[in-house]
Design goal:
Elements: H1 9-12, H2 24-53, H3 66-80, H4 87-108, E1 111-117, E2 120-127, E3 133-137, H5 143-180, H6 189-199, H7 201-213
Helix pairs in contact: 2-3, 2-5, 3-6, 4-5, 5-6
Length: 220
């Protein structure tokens, strides 16, 4: 498991490269869907915590999603062993912490989005850590190109927000588990991280399908 691996890289694109005009429509749609899926995952994590607190023998309604059922099983194991984390589990927790930190570090630098034509920059926008932005636009820039520039900025902000929301979802879930299981939140980090990755798996498939549907040499 690489400490700097980014689970959103294939879904929302790399942070170090502004989206091309050809990518905008797909990324706009995907960013909105990812945002909705992560918001939904917060409630599903809370449901999993409630289910994990019940005795396994009581059963309950079956989980529609295998990822939800796996999370409940993982949390039950965390609950039983919440008084301590063995050395192997501790190493895994540290790897997850490093990956989360890497995602936050990636969005701390200022991004710069430029729209150029004919060797000249017509619009430039700087995006800060909090998603704030400042733009310089040539008054002669046509409205259509300006609209594209603004879409590229909005997508870049969404790419950053997705990483922050991913981290907040994992850490927030761990905090709620720590409160519910009397100290089991740290041991639950790997399970929560894997769960949120699984929630986003469908978008990897979507990205592959979109790329496969493009003509050879076209922008993704």
């Amino acid at each position: 498991m690489s400490p700097d691996a980014d689970p959103l890289d294939r879904v929302l694109g790399p942070l170090d490269r502004p989206p091309t005009d050809g990518e905008l429509l797909a990324l706009e749609r995907r960013a909105a869907e990812v945002d909705a899926r992560l918001a939904e995952a917060a409630a599903r994590i809370d449901d999993a915590i409630t289910a994990a607190l019940r005795p396994a023998s009581r059963g309950g309604a079956p989980h529609r999603d295998p990822a939800d059922a796996m999370l409940v099983a993982d949390l039950r194991r965390v609950r039983v062993g919440s008084r301590g984390v063995d050395a192997q589990a501790q190493r895994l927790v540290e790897q997850i912490q490093a990956r989360l930190q890497g995602m936050l570090d990636a969005v701390r630098y200022a991004a710069r989005i430029e729209t150029a034509a004919g060797g000249r920059v017509w619009a430039a926008t700087a995006i800060g850590w909090g998603g704030d932005s400042a733009s310089v636009v040539d008054p002669a820039l046509d409205p259509e190109t300006l609209a594209v520039h603004r879409r590229r900025v909005a997508v870049s902000i969404a790419q950053r927000r997705g990483r922050v929301r991913f981290v907040a979802l994992v850490l927030g879930g761990a905090a709620r588990i720590a409160a519910a299981f009397a100290g089991g939140g740290l041991g639950a980090l790997p399970a929560l991280y894997r769960y949120v990755e699984q929630v986003l798996d469908a978008f990897d498939t979507l990205a592959d399908a979109e790329a496969a549907a493009l003509p050879a040499g076209a922008d993704p």
